Amino acid sequence: MSASSSPRRPLHYAWIVAGVTFFTLLAAAGGRAAPGVMIVPLGNEFQWSRATVSAVIAVNIFLYGLIGPFAAALYQSFGLRRTMLLAMTLVGAGYGLSTLATHYWQFMLLWGVVVGTGSGMVATVLGAAVANRWFVQRRGVVMGLLTASAATGQLVFLPWLAAVVTVHGWRGAPLVVAAVAAITLPVIWRFMRDEPAEVGERPYGESESESEAARVQAPGNPAKLALTVLADAVRVRDFWLLAGSFFVCGASTNGLIGTHLVSAAFDCGIPEVKSASLLAMMGVFDLVGTTASGWMSDRFNCRYLLFGYYGLRGLSLLFLPAALVGPSAGLLLFAVFYGLDWIATVPPTVRLCADVFGRERAGIVFGWVVAGHQLGAAFSAFMAGWLRTTSGTYTLAFMSAGALCLVAAIGVLPIGGQRRALAAGALG
User: Fold this and answer.
1) By C-alpha distance, which of 178, 377, 401 is closest to 259?
2) pTM of the model
3) What values do phi and psi take at 202, rounded to 5?
4) Domains in the chain, start-ordered, CATH in brackets?
């Protein structure tokens, strides 16, 4: 018999796990998109300023990031599936109950604390955990796809949510998010698995001769594990460079554009549905850009990739104020360009975390780096709202974020000088 007649190998279960994770991250991203289309109608109903509403969103974003490293430890201690089920339950319950809220503290509790905690458990760190646990080959591409799902979902949901808000009021959007979260639960329960060994397989691309020690096994108290890794990581300069650059990444994406671009466009006479559609188009280009970034992070120096991403993002943000008041072609150009770069920084950042700190601790270290990202996003979400309230325009917020991106472009170049420092020394 010829070689071509040999039976085809079945699909490796790692790809099913990646698909479930992609779907979950996409659904969770819808929850993070919802506040962006509710700032104006919510403020109008309760007579709250942009700064007041932005404070709730800032708490949500901050907890989304703070939970990340603890979620990474939870994945190791309690498993991916159980953590994902808990997370989507919190997201759905938080948004569903918010439709009954009538006081500011209730929104702070439900949107800020409950949804922030749940979304933090299914954030970018989940994609990193799945990529590191289930893949040896194609890890960069998978990380790019999973990262893109988190960002793309946030943007693609916006036109749908904006249309619902326009027709049914702001309460329609959280009901949509709660319904989508409920749909994910049976999918996670049926198809998600914690380890390749559960289905009798090795991580994709791992040979029999490769060490089992590379697999992530870390029983014990997840909070203690996360804090122990942080205590070691802060002694390494590269951790601060990674976290600092990701602070700028969050400040210039989720916190600024994701939260305030619809409102900024509304100020310039652009209808909410149209501006939300613009963000959705950015999401489509983000899927292309971030996936390509994952492919490149397997092949090129990640420091130089980050230098290019932050530098180009800074220039595009400096251009945005003119694009908002100029011809529509300028705003379209910004959407395409910025969309390609939206969160392309994640795959090379994940790769650098693994290079410097080792595969065993990379997920938790990246979780703390993501905490820096969301701290920057929370800071930017509040400050942009405050600047809009005090000055009547978002121009200073956009220009400041652009300048920060240019600084970050220079700051990432020294990363890697302490390659695998913790893996070889500080972590014993």
Assistant:
1) 377
2) 0.68
3) -95, 165
4) 12-203+222-426 (1.20.1250.20)
